[in-house]
Amino acid sequence: MAFKYYIRNCILTLALAGTGFQTYSQSNDSTIARKDSTIKLNHNKEKSDSILHFAMKHIGMPYRCGGKGPKNFDCSGYTGYIFSNFGYHLNASSTSQYLQGTKLDLDEIERGDLVFFKGRNSRSSRVGHVGIVCEIDKENKSFKFIHAAVNGGVKIDQYPDKYYYGKRYVGAKRIIEQLPAKVTIAEQDNKDIVTESINEKIKDEDMTISTHIVQKGDNLYRLSKKYNCTVEDIINWNNLKNIKLSIGEKLNIKIKN
């Protein structure tokens, strides 16, 4: 009987080989899966630790719209400044930084990865905030991240929380060892410029630029709700250096067609 099953398995193996299918033992499958995962999730712990050590030195620095450091920051200005000190070029806004790096599932996140959240409008699908993971709790699927927040400047917060970030998490990206560092930074800059130009052209073709004249009671948050965009969008569209608006001030607003 055993010989009969042996002959049948040999015939089945030869038949599968003839159709182009590959057969692996269970142990080989696991090895291949682990190998692919290692390649995808390449993580440089030493560099991550160095980046976070530098990032922690800026805790308490004030938030400022459009701030790129070193004395004040907005969220993307902070991540861009920290990573630039280690030879990595990040795009200007949290939305465009989300286009960089390798996408990660929640259980793949490590220290030094970027995490992205929606802006104040939790119902929006747009990225509006970014931070750097500084502590991981795999068992509870939670992490702490350091970021530049409107309320409190550079500080550490946790995901998930009860009220804010738990409702706004979008995703995570790995930048370390995924983008070329110092020796090829010029090449990456050129690539980013071309990519951003193409993206902006596509976006502009789908959007109409409108002018909003600031009235009494207007602020960036209320305008972002009114026009279904993020505060950071309005800041970038108008190159604002200050979050305080003046009555009569004209703002460019991009509205989807």
SSE map:
Blueprint lengths: L1 H18 L6 H15 L4 H12 L18 H10 L9 H4 L4 E3 L9 E5 L8 E11 L4 E8 L3 E7 L9 E6 L10 H21 L1 E7 L6 H7 L4 H8 L11 E7 L1
Antiparallel strand pairs: 1-6, 2-3, 2-6, 3-4, 4-5, 7-8
Helix pairs in contact: 7-8
Largest sheet: 6 strands, antiparallel
Global structural class = alpha+beta
**N/C terminus separation:** 72 Å
Oligomeric organization of the protein chains: single chain
What is the topology, as strand order, of the major beta sheet?
1-6-2-3-4-5
What would the average pLDDT be, to the nearest integer?
78
Backbone shape: globular
* Corresponding CATH superfamily of the largest domain: endopeptidase domain like (from Nostoc punctiforme)
| Parts with pLDDT < 50 across at least 5 consecutive residues | 2-7, 10-40, 179-195, 197-202
Helix content: 25-40%
| CATH class category name of the largest domain | Alpha Beta
The succession of helices and strands, N to C, reads: HHHHHEEEEEEHEHHE
- How many structural domains in the coordinates? 3
Strand content: 15-25%
CATH topological fold name of the largest domain: endopeptidase fold (from Nostoc punctiforme)
**Tally of alpha and pi helices:** 8
The radius of gyration computed from the alpha-carbon positions, rounded to a whole number of angstroms, is 24 Å
* CATH structural architecture of the largest domain: Alpha-Beta Complex
